[in-house]
């Protein structure tokens, strides 16, 4: 098996010591011939893999975070609006060793979040050639693997990126702090997002002037350290896109909606308070988002600029990945578990 490893040296947890632990685990797999290439700038991973087919490499291993996964997916598949995109069996199979800050993609596949443990699992998957085909999302002409959204989540990522540029680490506590600040700002001047979605059964969902709307291709939507952010518990890589939002950020309803995003079990009594204002739609095939003024948009944890309109779709059988055949069950957490993990983060 010919495998190309794409490594992002700027990823959160990469180090020379980590390479010395991980690389031998993959090279010891019988029949695997591993070549490594480092990225040097944003978008480089996409350039490296652009146009590669299984005739070139049997596998692409991402040694990085969700942003590097996003680049590799876009490089392999090309423009999302191209009707002549390659079939999954024509592309190298994707494997991931997580070294990012959230690592949502690999964790949602049921692979450990720590690089060495993930490398052990990936080595066994390579030995047994255990793979599955998953759905991906598209926004305009681009692909995303994990999540996408207008407004609050994109603002949080932009502010965390600015903090990182100033030398601060992107810790779970920093994400929580920036998220709280963004939430308070959004309550004063809430975004106005119009949403129209259609699922595979033809059922439609429409909402106007929504201050918060997230789109996810996975479950959980993201992680804050050990905290899973669960928006659509039934969502998975085998279903369409999940939408979650709230119609009002004010009062107890908005606060409880944010607690739900942090993983509070929907069956808890507090969730009953917010059900009337929660907006949720599962298995969407097509989604259109629109705002009256340009707002930040993010995909897979990367800021993509400002837009007024974004068209999203769910694409079945988009790419093959090395992963356990049975995905993990959805995360549902109690208030006690959330408070315990918040103390752990602190």
Total count of strands: 15
Total number of helical segments? 10
Q: Largest sheet at a glance?
A: 9 strands, antiparallel
Return the average pLDDT rounded to an integer.
83
**What percent of residues adopt helix (DSSP H or I)?**
25-40%
Following the backbone from N to C, one meets helices and strands in this order, namely EHEHEHEHHEEEHHEEEEEEHHEEH
Query: Which overall shape is indicated by the principal axes computed on the Cα atoms?
Result: globular
Distance linking N and C termini: 44 Å
Measured by DSSP, the beta-strand proportion falls in 25-35%
Assign the structural class, choosing from mainly alpha, mainly beta, alpha/beta, alpha+beta, or little secondary structure: alpha+beta
Organism: Corynebacterium simulans
Keywords: Kinase, Transferase
Cofactor: Mg(2+)
Pfam family, one: DAGK_cat
